[in-house]
Write a structure and sequence with these properties.
The chain has 2 helices and 8 strands, in the order αββββββββα. The chain is an alpha/beta fold. The chain has an 8-stranded mixed β-sheet, with no helix packed on it. A hairpin with a 2-residue loop joins strand 2 and strand 3. It is extended and about 75 Å long.
Length: about 150
């Protein structure tokens, strides 16, 4: 009888730990509900290193995440939907770029705010985009000597 109680307690502890890890992973990857946020769209030439769940930052502070990435078959650009936390207003002349955390770090989406007194409405499109810079292509240009 005591062996049965021990097995039930250990099984419950394992289940609780597994549920805790799943909740933590959902929170970290941004899979958790997007309540309290609004969407903005942007179209990039290249989204190298960015996928669903990637951080969206303003002044180095996480203010949202990437919700969706699709290829536009007409323009051959990566159409992206990002979510921004409610209460954070983005001026409508802001730029959105793909930035790198460092030489070995990953990429993230950075919003560079403009100076307009008007703000983006939910589901607006940020038109001023700057795509990811490929470190490999930069190194190849440097090594081959083609500085164009």
């Amino acid at each position: 009888m005591t062996q049965n109680k021990t097995e039930v307690m250990v099984g419950g502890l394992v289940m609780a730990t597994a549920i805790g890890f799943l909740l933590y992973a959902a929170q970290i990857t941004g899979v958790s509900s997007s309540a309290g946020s609004y969407p903005l769209t942007a179209s990039f030439r290249s989204l190298e290193g960015v996928s669903v769940g990637t951080d969206v930052r303003l002044a180095g502070v996480k203010i949202g995440s990437v919700n969706s990435v699709t290829l536009n078959a007409e323009t051959y650009r990566a159409d992206t939907i990002i979510s921004i936390k409610d209460g954070i207003e983005i001026p409508d002349d802001s730029a959105i770029t793909i930035a790198s955390e460092g030489l070995l770090g990953g990429n993230f989406v950075e919003i560079v705010p403009g100076g307009s007194p008007f703000m983006y409405d939910p589901s607006s499109e940020i038109e001023d985009t700057q795509s990811a810079v490929s470190l490999v292509s930069l190194l190849l240009k440097f090594v081959s000597g083609s500085g164009e």
